[in-house]
Description:
Blueprint: H1 5-14, E1 18-20, E2 32-35, E3 39-43, E4 61-65, E5 72-74, E6 79-89, E7 94-100, H2 102-105, E8 109-110, E9 117-118, E10 123-132, E11 138-140, E12 145-153, H3 183-187
Antiparallel strand pairs: 1-6, 2-12, 3-4, 3-6, 5-11, 6-10, 7-9, 7-12, 8-10
Amino acid sequence: xxxxxxxxxxxxxxxxxxxxxxxxxxxxxxxxxxxxxxxxxxxxxxxxxxxxxxxxxxxxxxxxxxxxxxxxxxxxxxxxxxxxxxxxxxxxxxxxxxxxxxxxxxxxxxxxxxxxxxxxxxxxxxxxxxxxxxxxxxxxxxxxxxxxxxxxxxxxxxxxxxxxxxxxxxxxxxxxxxxxxxxxxxxxxxx
Length: 191
């Protein structure tokens, strides 16, 4: 069951669900708008001929900061990692779903490829997988509404929350866009 605005407000008031900072105007009928933070991870030209999933990728990316009214230009076919301004914490009986804003999707801006699922127990800022699938460059601004998160109630509270030691959660507590840590699966024998 998807939480309504009333249920979202109740969960926030109880402190079970955290979205901070939060402007009450960002609470929609069944979701909360989230905003683009100032740091982006941008792929740079590399001498590596491919991305090896068994190796860290952080050396393939540079951090770029978007300041004030100066936009970051996301070119057609370009892919960058961003982050939400908001810190989000999900209790044991809810799951979050991150989706793009319809108005941005209509101009070709996608905010996630696959990372739209926010597990129970998640704590941190969400990394956004920003892609421009249009034929024209798109401007991105610090603080702009970039997406929305809705919440669904689980049938029972989860036994193992995101961040539990036995899960090998790679991104718990992240504060800024975080490059892929998939290589850790190979090192931990979870191919």
